[in-house]
Write a structure and sequence with these properties.
Pfam families: LRR_1, LRR_8
Family: Belongs to the RLP family.
CATH topology of the largest domain: Leucine-rich repeat, LRR (right-handed beta-alpha superhelix)
Structural class: alpha/beta
Keywords: Cell membrane, Glycoprotein, Leucine-rich repeat, Membrane, Receptor, Repeat, Signal, Transmembrane, Transmembrane helix
CATH architecture of the largest domain: Alpha-Beta Horseshoe
CATH superfamily of the largest domain: Ribonuclease Inhibitor
Transmembrane segments: 485-513
Membrane topology: Single-pass membrane protein
Shape: elongated
Length: 526
C-alpha cells in the first residue's frame, strides 16, 4: 500500500498496521525529527517526522526529501528493519551517521541523504548493507577516508559522494566485485591515482572525478567500453597524448570533460583526436579536432592556448546546419554536466551549442568561416589578443544568444547587420579599439553602455558620445578626412618634385646654352 501526505488525513491511521510506502517529499515540512511523537500526530500538528516510524514493521519505503527538516536522524528510525528505500535528500539534517544504527537496515537497497549538513566519517558498518544498490551522500560535510569495508557492497551500482571533504586514496576501496554503473567522487580531496580496480567495472557508464588531486590514468581505462560520461576536470593528470590514445577505445563516450589538467603539455602536430565518433561534449586543452562529427559543445577556455584560431573549428558539422543538429539524440546523461555554477544539464538535446575559447592567448583574426556555424548559440572569444575587424559573416549566426568578444584588440566598425540575430540577449565588445556607430534597433536597444566601455571611438545613444557630434565624427568621415589629407600631402610632394624637375631642366639647358655661346662669340682682347 502506498500513501502520500497529500492524500486524505483520514487514511493516516492505517500507516502503522498496513502501509509499506510513505512519501512526504515536497510538503514544506520543517522542524526537528521529534523523538517522542507518534508519526501520525507529528505530521498532523508540527509537520515533523518521528522516530516512532521504527515501529512501522511493514514500512519498506520512506521518502521525506525536499522539506526543511532539521536535527539528526533519530536512532529509533532505524528500527524499521523492513525499510528498503530511505530518502531524506535536500533537508537541513545534521550530525553524523551512527554506524550501530545504520547496520540495522540490512534490507536497505536505496539510501539517499544527499544535500544536508551531515558530518563525520562514513561508518565502517556501511559494508554490511549487502543489498545496497544506490548510495547518495552528496553535498554534505563528511570527512576522512572511505572505509575499505565499502568494498563489500557488491550490489552497489550507483554511488555519489560529490561535494564533501572525503580524502585519501580511493584505492582503499576495491571496486572489482561491484556492478558499478555510475560513480561520482567529485569535489573532494582524494589523491593518488585512479584505482586499478575501477577499470574492472565493465558496466560503468558514468565516472566523475573532477576537482580532486588525482594524478594518473592507466591504459586500462580502455577496458571501460560502456563508458559514456567522463569528467576529470581540475586534477593533476599528465601525458595528454597517452590519455587520448587510451580513451579513443571507449567508443560509447559522448561527454568528455578534462579541462585544467595537462599543464604545459601540447599534443604533437601529427597527433589528432580520432576514434571519438559519438563524442558530443568536449572540454579539453588544445588539440587538432579531427574525427569529431557529432561535437556541438566545445569549451577550451582558461588554458594557455596560443596562435591563431584553428580554421578546423569552423567545420564542426553539428553547428553548421539544422539538418545535422536534428540528428542529435535526446540522450539522458547519467550524471549532470555543470557548465556554470547555476547551470547543469541532464539531457543532451537541452545543451546550448557552444564555442568557448575565452581566457587564452590567441592571436590573429576571427576567421571568416565563423559564419558557417549557423546553429551556434554561444560564442565566446573574450580575453585573448585577437586583432583585425569583426568579420561581417558573424552576422549569419541567426541563432546566436550570447556573443562575447571583449578584451581583445579588435578594430574597425561594428557590422550593422549584427542586429540580425533576433535571439541575442548577451553582447559584449568592451575593451577593444572599435570605432563608429553602435547598431540600433532590435536587441541592441536593450544592451547598456557596459557592453561597449573601453572603445573611445564608438558612439551611440547609449554612450556618452553621440554620433555626429564634434567629439566623435563618424568612421566614414574620418576615412574621408584621412584620404583628403593624404591626397593633399601627395599633391604637395608630387607638385614640389615636378617643380624641382622643371627647375633642374631649366638650369641644365641654360648651362648648355652658355657653353655654346662661349664657343661662338670670340673674345675681344684689349
Amino acid at each position: 500500500m502506498q500513501f502520500s501526505l497529500r492524500q486524505s488525513a483520514s487514511r493516516i491511521g492505517v500507516l502503522q498496521s498496513s502501509s509499506s510506502i510513505l512519501d512526504v517529499s515536497f510538503n514544506h515540512l520543517s522542524g526537528p525529527l521529534q523523538e517522542h511523537q507518534s508519526p501520525i500526530s507529528a505530521f498532523l500538528s508540527s509537520g515533523t517526522i518521528s522516530p516512532e516510524f521504527g515501529n512501522c514493521s511493514k514500512l519498506t519505503v520512506l521518502k521525506a526529501g525536499h522539506n526543511n527538516l532539521t536535527g539528526g536522524l533519530p536512532n529509533g528510525l532505524f528500527n524499521a528493519t523492513s525499510l528498503e528505500h530511505l530518502a531524506f535528500p535536500n533537508n537541513n539534517l545534521q550530525g553524523a551517521l551512527d554506524g550501530s544504527s545504520v547496520v540495522k537496515l540490512s534490507n536497505l537497497i536505496f539510501l539517499d541523504l544527499g544535500s544536508n549538513g551531515l558530518e563525520g566519517e562514513m561508518p565502517d558498518s556501511i559494508g554490511q548493507l549487502g543489498r545496497l544498490e544506490e548510495l547518495h551522500l552528496d553535498n554534505n560535510l563528511m570527512i576522512e577516508e572511505l572505509p575499505s569495508t565499502l568494498s563489500n557492497c557488491r550490489s552497489l551500482n550507483y554511488i555519489t559522494l560529490r561535494n564533501n571533504s572525503f580524502m585519501g586514496d580511493l584505492s582503499r576501496v576495491n571496486f572489482t566485485q561491484m556492478d558499478l554503473r555510475t560513480a561520482d567522487f567529485s569535489l573532494n580531496k582524494f589523491n593518488g591515482t585512479i584505482p586499478e580496480s575501477i577499470y574492472a567495472c565493465s558496466n560503468l557508464i558514468a565516472l566523475r572525478l573532477a576537482y580532486n588531486f588525482l594524478g594518473q590514468f592507466s591504459p586500462r581505462i580502455a577496458n571501460l567500453r560502456s563508458l559514456s560520461f567522463l569528467s576529470v576536470t581540475s586534477n593533476s593528470f599528465t601525458n595528454i597524448t597517452d590519455v587520448i590514445r587510451s580513451l579513443k577505445w571507449c567508443k560509447n563516450l559522448t561527454t568528455l570533460v578534462m579541462g585544467t589538467n595537462f599543464k604545459g603539455e601540447t599534443i604533437p602536430q601529427n597527433e589528432a583526436i580520432e576514434g571519438f565518433e559519438n563524442l558530443r561534449i568536449l572540454t579539453i586543452d588544445t588539440c587538432p579536432l579531427v574525427g569529431l562529427p557529432l561535437l556541438f559543445f566545445l569549451d577550451i577556455s582558461s588554458n594557455r592556448l596560443t596562435g591563431n584560431i584553428p580554421t578546423e573549428l569552423m567545420g564542426m558539422p553539428m553547428l553548421q546546419s539544422e539538418k545535422n543538429a536534428a540528428k542529435l539524440d535526446p540522450k539522458f546523461l547519467e550524471l549532470p554536466v555543470f557548465w556554470t555554477q547555476s547551470r547543469q544539464y541532464r539531457w543532451l538535446n537541452a545543451f546550448p551549442n557552444v564555442l568557448n575559447l575565452c581566457n587564452n592567448s590567441l592571436t590573429g583574426i576571427i576567421p571568416q568561416g565563423i559564419g558557417q556555424l549557423k546553429m551556434l548559440n554561444v560564442l565566446n572569444f573574450s580575453t585573448n589578443s585577437l586583432s583585425g575587424e569583426i568579420p561581417p559573416q558573424i552576422c549569419n549566426l541567426t541563432n546566436l544568444q550570447t556573443l562575447d568578444l571583449s578584451n581583445n584588440q579588435l578594430t574597425g566598425e561594428l557590422p550593422s547587420a549584427l542586429r540580425n540575430p533576433h535571439f541575442l540577449s548577451g553582447f559584449n565588445v568592451s575593451n577593444n579599439d572599435l570605432e563608429g556607430p553602435v547598431p540600433t534597433g532590435g536587441q541592441f536597444n536593450t544592451f547598456t553602455n557596459t557592453s561597449y566601455i573601453g572603445n573611445s571611438k564608438l558612439c551611440g545613444p547609449m554612450l556618452s558620445v553621440h554620433c555626429g557630434s564634434l567629439e566623435a565624427p563618424s568612421a566614414s568621415m574620418k576615412r574621408r578626412h584621412k584620404k583628403t589629407l593624404l591626397a593633399v600631402v601627395f599633391g604637395v610632394i608630387f607638385g614640389g618634385l615636378a617643380a624641382l624637375s622643371l627647375l633642374a631642366c631649366f638650369l641644365i639647358a641654360r648651362l648648355v646654352y652658355d657653353d655654346h655661346t662661349e664657343n661662338l662669340v670670340p673674345l675681344h682682347r684689349r
